[in-house]
Amino acid sequence: MFQGILIEKDDAGYRASVQQIDDSQLPEGDVTVRVSHSSLNYKDGLAITGKGPVVRKFPMVPGIDIAGVVEASDHPDYRAGDRVLLNGWGVGETHWGGLAQKARLKGDWLVPLPAAFTPQQAVAIGTAGYTAMLCVLALERHGVKPADGEIVVTGAAGGVGSVAIAVLTKLGYTVVAVSGRPAEADYLKQLGAAEILERSAFAAPGKPLARERWAGAVDVVGSHTLANVCAAMKYRGVVTACGLAGGMDFPSTVAPFILRGVTLVGIDSVMCPRPERLAAWQRLATDLDPAKLGLIAHEISLAEAIPTAAQLMDGQVRGRVVVDVNR
Fold first, then answer.
1. pLDDT category, 45, cuts 50, 70, 90?
2. How far apart are CA 103 and CA 27, in angstroms?
3. Which parts of the chain fold into alpha helices (H)?
4. d(CA 310, CA 215)
């Protein structure tokens, strides 16, 4: 038996609770992991609260991030005692995830835990930080350099935004943070933001083209925010889009793309191929100051994850939430 959060949906309704789970209930997989830490992401908040149709099978253990030690393996790349990490691949949606003390997974989904990080630090980075790094790599791949000008990061006080600011600043970029939480201004400046702008300036419908300002962008919001960011890009600027916290719609025009040559790059972290995952984690090991994780993340127990998920959905959580599943 092991402890975990189980989401159930039946005639009694939709609910999430901490329960004792029998090993026999674990799903199919060729690697069994003794989980040490997971985290709370936006997608986990949707799953636990039921505010979004994230969970595809019931019952379900949420948790799209996993760090732990291999307990048993039939996969050629892993053996008992290996430290491993997982982000995405549908865990917590279609396959049991990391908010439990044990997980059975496909070995092809795992990556070795980078030596630069403890399990707690790796999950403090988690899917959010790994997604932020994918955005940075995309900006670099499309030729955006620090000398080209400011990079705007929306949803800046969240997990993706926090890591993006820390990494971009260390790489020498000038970062402008967009946030709807004025109280987090000092936090964002500590991460390296040169300026903080109010979210409301981006949230309403804007002009097809605005004054050119941004050389690059990391957007986690979507909707009008993404449209307004695109409208204010410099000639041949690059926007990376990786979230929908403000909505799935994109009420824009083709003007930024055909008049200024703007590039909009979609960032998917869930099914991202293994080589790109490994590259992102290798770069995080060199380009993210581990000391910043003390600012970005805080740790809670497994039992605290359910009420914290509700706070996350209400926009009351800063940075990253690490869940120690063994306390």
1. very high
2. 8
3. 42-49, 119-141, 159-170, 185-191, 200-203, 223-231, 255-259, 274-287, 290-296, 305-313
4. 35
Instruction: Give 247's Cβ-side CA count (13 Å radius).
Output: 10
In percent, the amount of the chain with pLDDT more than 70 equals: 100
Site of tokens 């993404």: 226
Given a cut of 90, whether residue 315 has pLDDT beyond it is: no
CA distance 321 to 306: 12
Amino acid at 307: P
Report the amino acid identity of residue 41: N
CATH superfamily membership of 126-266: NAD(P)-binding Rossmann-like Domain (3.40.50.720)
CATH architecture designation of domain 2-113+292-324: Alpha-Beta Complex (3.90)
Cβ atoms of 160 and 131 closer than 8 Å: yes
Beta strands (DSSP E) in 168-250 are 175-179, 195-198, 214-219, 233-241
Non-local CB neighbours of 303 within 8 Å, separated by 6+ positions: 18
Q: How far apart are CA 61 and CA 16, in angstroms?
A: 9
Predicted confidence (pLDDT) per residue in 124-155, tens digit: 999 999 999 999 999 999 999 999 999 999 99
Q: What single DSSP character describes residue 302?
A: T
The residue type at 264 = L
Report the half-sphere exposure of 56 (CA within 13 A, side-chain side).
8
